[in-house]
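Sorry to interrupt, but I need a hand with the structure work. Please put the record directly below this note.
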Amino acid sequence: MSDTPPRWSKATVYPDMWADPDDDPRDSAGIGPDGELATLRDFLTSYRMTLRMKCEGLDAEQLARRSVPPSTMSLLGLVRHLAEVERDWRNWISEGEPLPKLYGERDADFDGAVAEQAEVDAAYAALEREQAATDAALAEHPDPSERLAKDGIAVRELLVHRIDEYARHCGHADLLRECVDGRVGQ
């Protein structure tokens, strides 16, 4: 007998998708946003939503499960990691002293992802808070070519970095979720 869960999807129209088109909050049918900045923000929003969708319906133990030993990566670890990364990006564009790390030393975002509901709640709260703070900081700079802080990173470059980070980790989330309960889809 195998410990591998059977593969499944909630989607019925396209069974290789995460959700049916009518049920997908990321549905981008129709005209896309106008302009570079709006397009970049739209892609970022979609990837953020995808990460949350990959985590939905799981309990604390499932979210904290390390599905590919010896890796410490878990869905909960990804949520914590992305909160940490959002904070770090804000440090890139800030002139002041850098904000302290949320979770401490290297890999603490993954290592500390334990199967406790309080930790899950705290991780989601931290992610929302850090996303909102980074979004607010960038909203003050509507020109995508504007260069910020001492390193002179362009707003455009920072947004692309954010999209890249979320997209990469959504790929990890696909595999992690499939290992947890067999659910598949884009």
Notes: The radius of gyration is 18 Å. The chain is about 55% helix and 0% strand. The chain has a mean pLDDT of 91.
